[in-house]
Amino acid sequence: MPKAPFPDQPYFSWMAWGMLKICPRRWFLHNFGRELPAPDGPKFYAERKLSYWNAFAGQLADDGVTELIRHFKKHGVWRQDMGEWLHKQALEYRKESLAYTEAAQTGAELPYVKRQVLDKYFWGEVPDAAEHRRVLSDARAAVEAFLRTDIPHRIESAPREALMCDHKDGGFPWASHDGVPVFAVYDFAIKTSDLVTIFDWKTGKLTPEKAQAALEQLHWYALYAIETWGYRPDQIRLAPVFLSTTYGYDETEPDPATLQGIRNSWKDRHCDIKDLMQKNPNPSDLQECFPMTENLRECAGCVFRSCPGYGRIPR
User: Fold this and answer.
1) What is the DSSP string of 110-126?
2) Mind listing the pLDDT tens digit for each residue in 120-146?
């Protein structure tokens, strides 16, 4: 479990690592934007909480699968009302998004949000009923696909204490690797004394590129299992589960060379950023060390619309 609510900066997560590779400025704004002087700092802090509408169905499906497992762990039976549950959860996303948006627009203190804030509501691009129906339909299909796998049977056969599904309601799990704090927000794991299987739910279409990325992401979580839970690599299984397919899923052992390569990348990048922070204690100066991407397609979809990069998009 975490040693503290949050580690010291800089820290990494799978999502933030992707930001760092795609657009270093986006990573900076996500992690340090709030420290910039007004009016930019408060804007970036508010925009940091935004989630893409296109990711809504996947997030809702993830919530649904987690709820199924959590309910079984507590009660020993599967929920039978997931369609209704997903609908209520979607309404909660909308409610929190609207409340957060109102606070940001009026200058009030931003409320704590348990769920992510949907960017369309924040920017006044209110989705219509058809868009909401598509989200619910996709989320329900993903949850139904989960129930058709053998994973529910595996859950039923496992000791209740082996089911690791509750960390998202508490402090996010992280570990220090060679002095580098790294978050490991895995979706689900079955953890016994001599073997841990780490699952990651994917709702997008399966492509070779996405399969490779999912496996790399699970290697991040394998390093957490090694560092925090004390497993050897041969005691770990990685299971990316694409819920949009019907062929099932594969489990693999983590590759030691991949694990070491990831650790080396973390350490090198962490040292570089720490050095930049020491040389540029002023956030405004530090910002210039993290350039904006030249890929305007990335800027067009970025949640940080207050960034000058967004202003480069032709309207």
Assistant:
1) PPP-SSPEEHHHHTT--
2) 999 999 999 999 999 999 999 999 999
Phi, psi of 30 (to 5 degrees): -65, -35
Residue 106 structure tokens:
């009026």
Eight-class DSSP state of 199: E
Residue among 254, 204, 252, 205 at smallest CA distance from 225: 254
The identity of residue 231, as a single letter, is: Y
Closest C-alpha to 242, from 279, 280, 212, 263: 212
Are 135 and 56 spatial neighbours (Cβ–Cβ below 8 Å)? yes
Question: How does strand 196-202 pair with strand 236-242?
Answer: parallel
In the chain, where does DSSP find H-type helix? 14-22, 24-32, 40-47, 56-75, 82-106, 119-122, 129-148, 151-157, 208-224, 256-279, 283-287, 296-300
Question: How would residue 244 be classed by pLDDT, with cut points 50, 70 and 90?
Answer: confident
Separation CA 226–CA 165 (nearest Å): 18
Q: How confident is the model at residue 204 (pLDDT cuts 50, 70, 90)?
A: confident
Interatomic CA distance for residues 166 and 110, integer angstroms: 26
Domain edges within the chain: 33-148+295-315, 159-279
Q: Give the CA angle between residues 49, 140, 71 to the nearest 5°.
A: 80
**The pTM is what?**
0.93
Cβ(276)–Cβ(293) under 8 Å? no
d(CA 39, CA 37) in angstroms, rounded, equals 6
Phi, psi of 212 (to 5 degrees): -65, -40
Dihedral in degrees, nearest 10, Cα atoms 16, 119, 47, 103: -140
d(CA 166, CA 161) in angstroms, rounded, equals 11
Whether 216 and 261 have beta carbons less than 8 Å apart is answered as: no
